[in-house]
Structures are given as structure tokens and as C-alpha cells.
Amino acid sequence: YNYFNGKPRWSRAIPTTLTYAFSPNCMASNLKLSDIRLVFRRAFSRWSAVIPVNFTEAETYGFSDIKIGFYTGDHDDGEPFDGVLGVLAHGFSPESGKLHLDAAETWALDFESEKSRVAVDLESVATHEIGHVLGLAHSFDKESVMYPSLKPREKKMDLKVDDIEGIQQLYGSNPNFNIKTLSQSDTSSNHG
Amino acid sequence: RTAPLSSSPEPATTINHNSTWPNFQKFLDASKGRHFSGISELKKYMQRFGYLQVTDTTSGDEFDERFEFAVARYQRKLGLTVTGKLDSDTISEMTLPRCGVSDTLPTSNLHAVRH
After folding, report:
1. In a designed cystine with A85, which of A2, A153, B18, B107 is the match (CB 3.0 to 4.6 A)?
2. Hey, are the CB atoms on B100 and A88 less than 8 Å from each other?
3. DSSP letter string over B5-40?
4. B109 has pLDDT over 90
5. Do A85 and B107 touch (CB under 8 A)?
6. Percent residues over pLDDT 70 in chain B
7. What are the residue numbers of the active site of A?
8. Which residues of A touch B93 (CB under 8 A)?
């Protein structure tokens, strides 16, 4: 695992709750908001299971800590999206809270109903970008969620030991987290 | 005699994961010391994701020493065999869809907090 320069993290006292909200004007055209909310709730819960940080959806976008939106092309943050595939999303380091996804992608909730060969798993990308928003940079452990690339129609949403150790170095461990609850596949490719 | 790299069609078996970087396949097996039409796009990719310094020349189509160093750096980071050449494993990795956050995070990285 790796960190951004200066190892930034959300600086408030731990345990804490971070709020998130979806841009009312910038959403994926092929998905329902209720489905997107469900996916992000699951993605946030993967991180909150391992660190003493909770996430709750805010009522007001402007006052939320984490601002999520789907954008096309140049969206005024200096990192324009590039259409189908290529760059899928980006998340800013703490405490910016910006989490942007490329609206041009064929975002998938599941690959049973979404048959496109260029479909991208939303939950996998959401989990990865939340890692950036919390302070993790890219990991080069191929099995980790924080690995930089993701093939179309691939799922990679379960945190691995590398991801967990990295985020717990920043925020400490959730007192209810037990590493023994990880499946063997979550541990075997890392430090064992 | 094989056709020049810059004009060779993609092999029929190639699976292009990417609509944004599909032309990278034509640089397969490219190595230092030659001119490859369009390889400046690949240099921009390496620059964007932190493997080639912003101050390095990126506009030319020469596969020069700096670019070879960048390719080797990329291969080392990604756990690929370090050859400094654009071998098939390296090209395959480069054509995968990915996160837009830089891999090496220089001091001037835009993803640092802005106040």
C-alpha cells in the first residue's frame, strides 16, 4: 500500500462519521439513483468495517464531506475524462472529498443484466475511489482493491490485507474487525 | 520481412480492452533508438500517470533513453519483467482501463489538497 505525499487523512478525531452525497445534476444516465445509492452504501461499508469511521448519506450535497458525481469530459478539475474505458474515475486525497466517475462508461450493477463487453463494475470502482478519498494511493499488489487498473466485466471489491493494513495505518482498526474473518483468498496473495 | 511497426495492423487475436488507448498495440516490441510514428501519445500516457517527468521531452516520436527509463520504471512498479521495451505484457497492462490518479504522486500532483 501507498499514501499520497504528506500522508494526508481526514484529521478529525477518531472515531468519526463522514457524510457523502451525490451530485443532483451529474449522475449516470443508465442507472437509477436508488441503485447507485445502494452500491455506494455497500462500498462505504467495506471500509467502515475495518476502520473506526462511519459513513452516512447527507441530505444536502453542498455540505457533505464526500461529493460524488458522474461527469463527462472536461469537468473543471484539470483531469478531463476521456470517453469509453481509458480513465474510469478519480478520487482526490483528504480532505477534498471529491469522487468523480466518467459518465461515458457503461456502469454495471451486475453482469447478469448488463451484457456490454465494455461494462465496468460500479461497486469495484466505487470501493477503489473511496480508498483514495480516505488517503490511500495506488498499491501494486495485483489483488488489492487499490491496484490502479480494472478490466471490463471484472469485479474486485473485497478489501485485501494490503488495503486493510494501509487504511488501518491511517485510522486505526475498527474494534469489531477481526482479520480472521477474511477469507483465505483475501489473505493468500498478500502477506499470508 | 515484417511491416514497419507504425503501419502494422493489430493481430486478429488481440483483445483491446480500451477505446481510449487502442493504438498502443501497434508499438508492440518497440525499443530504444528508433522513431515510431505516434509514440508521443504513449509518452503522454507515461507522463500523465507519473512515469515520465513533465520536464522531459514528450512531443517527439523518438524512443529515447528517457522513455526507455520510464518504461522500465513502469514495468518495475507493476511487477512486470523489466526490459525497457514495449513487450506484450507491458502493452496489455497499458491498454487496461484504469483510475485517473497518478501512480507516482509527484509533489505537484493535482490530487494534493488545494486550499
Report:
1. B18
2. yes
3. GGGPPPPTT-----SSSGGGGGGTT--TTSB-TTHH
4. no
5. no
6. 69
7. 129
8. 149
A90 close to A60: Cβ distance less than 8 angstroms: no
Phi and psi angles of residue A69, each rounded to the nearest 5 degrees, phi first: -155, 155
- Block residue for cell numbers 463494475: A121
What nine digits make up the cell of A1? 500500500
C-alpha cell at A112: 447478469
- Which member of B21, B77, B93 has the closest CB to residue A86? B21
A121 sits in which H/E element = strand A119-121
What pLDDT, in 10s, does the model give residues B32-78?
A: 988 899 899 999 999 999 999 876 556 688 899 999 999 999 999 99
Within 8 A of B106 by CB-CB distance, chain A residues are 5
Q: Which residue of B has its CA nearest to A4?
A: B105
Task: Give A-chain residues touching B99 at CB under 8 angstroms.
Answer: 87-91, 125, 128-129, 132, 138, 148-150
Q: How many CB atoms lie within 10 A of CB A149?
A: 19
Predicted local confidence at residue B105, as pLDDT: 65
Q: How far apart are CA B51 and CA B106, in angstroms?
A: 10
Query: By CB neighbour count within 10 A (0-12 exposed, 13-18 middle, 19+ buried), where does A192 fall?
Result: exposed
Count CB neighbours of B48 within 10 A: 16
Q: What is the pLDDT of residues A75-134, one digit of tens each?
A: 999 999 999 999 999 999 999 999 999 999 999 999 999 999 999 999 999 999 999 999
pLDDT surpasses 90 at A30: no
CB contact under 8 A, A148 and B111: no
